[in-house]
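Sequence only, no structure available. Ideas?
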Amino acid sequence: MAARLLPALRFVIKGGLAGAAVYVVYDQGLLGNGTQGAEALRKAQAALPPAIQEWTSYMGWELPPTPKLDFSPSDSWNKGVQTVMSALSVAPTRACEYTVEGWKYVKDLVK
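Reply:
I predicted one. Tokens follow.
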């Protein structure tokens, strides 16, 4: 009986952890737009160093200071979206050009 119950219990525990992770991510605003993600990053940058400092002093460890990053996820996201959209907008033209070049190459091989 325990052999049958153990896999089901493991499945329930893993499902619960996955659900809790999704809930926390949603609650912190990481599944929202870029502005909400940037705000969540600012909150994490403000909250993590004191928490890490507290745990390292508790454990007796000494870590190097955390680097200061001046990073805007929304700007990076927008640049990535613009690059992808630019590539997609020229894709039909490039496909036609490559098709013409391919046919020329095949015709030259057949001659």
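The chain has three helices and no strands.
Hope that gets you unstuck.
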